[in-house]
Amino acid sequence: MKGLFIFFFLLHISLCAQKQGNIWYFGNSGAGLDFNDGCDPTVLTDGGTFAGFEGCATISDNLSGQLQFYTNSENVWNRNHQVIPNSDLIPSGSSITQVLIVRKPGSTSAYYIITCEVQGSSGEGLRFHGVDMNMNAGLGGMAFKDSSLFAAPVTEKITAVRHSNGVDLWLIAHQYNSTNYLCFLLNSSGIQTTPVISSIGKVHYNSLGFDAIGELKASPDGTRLAAVTMNKPNIELFGFNTSTGQISNLITLPENGGYSVSGNSSGIYGLSFSPNSKMLYVSKWIGAAPGIPTQIIQYNVSSNDSATINNTRVNVYSTMVKNLYSLQLAPNKKIYVAQNQASMYLGVIHYPDSSGLSCMYVDNGIYLNGSTSGWGLNNLMEYGNYCESPSIGMNETQKSAKLSIRPNPFSEYTDLHFDQAESNVKVILSDVRGRVLRSLDHISGTQLRIEKQDLVSGFYFLQVYRGKELIAMEKLIIE
Fold it and tell me: What is the pTM of this model?
């Protein structure tokens, strides 16, 4: 009985202290985010010589949140931002959509890196590589590399789901030029190299390799998977059995428009489920199609009914001036959006559990202190463990710690009341598409009046910045 108690105590610790995703590194200029100090991330710029153009992954210690290492599929960097010896992995790996790091169940020091191949044609197949954190005086080293998990061509998609036993993992990939999803069990003995194969959905193939591109994501509760292919205009949603590794119940969401180099193409690239697993977000980039905007699209997938889900489609954001790529759910229950390399910002979906425009997407949501993102963010297994501050939907009562607005809703004017005297802050009013309608600089004092003037009835987003820091954000409603 004592042994059983210890087992469940350790299992409880394992499940409740999941801080593996608390630090991210991505982009080409050392960009990163650190979620260890409360729910609001600290921006990092100290990443190594890191060519994180596209797929990248970072792992932290699950108890302390301390950085362990990070990779772009080409090389591996330790916590001191030095390349780990003998860590050259996949040539041109920084152009692969997803790479994944997972800890071996039952171990505190053994990790696996799972890599794919470039556009289903570079010849590496699906591989796994071992990192032992006991090597190199605790900085980690390559225990082995280039072990073949599946030799036939695979797409650039890889994700993981917690097994129903709460300890083991499922590693999920997709065979190229095939309908086969490949699901590998990872337990305390290591990766079981014979996959559970589910032949479902469309063939991932086209002559230019674009159908290998696009993200594969799992819902935080593990019951759903979603996949996109950049070439063909479909989003595919599935049910997932966390006990058997089987994938079933295909629902197709016929998204179209966007990238058009090879004709009937979608430009769909990024995916993320909301924390409650009910909302699915998809990014679509401009590519070469004239007149078709970049978009972020939301579906409510809770009904598991194709017609119902398709009818919930909401265009959360559109723009013609930049591309939006990877979507990633963070420990603070927000979804971050990678932007094209000229942008020094990430977009942020602040309340992804909320339906429609109340999810509150902010395009210049977080400033990267001069660094930039590429196409990818930190590809994570969705652990379903978050920091303590709850995610509040915009359709609920919400008050900022630094700002109150009275009246709201309003018809002629409203007053902004700061809880302390501010000096030289900037107030931005934008519409639901992120377009800035008013920008008020050098605001000081404890109160500011906003008049309706030429604004039409509807709701708007108000942001207050102190320098580059976003210090308050609210929704305004004009009657």
Answer: 0.82
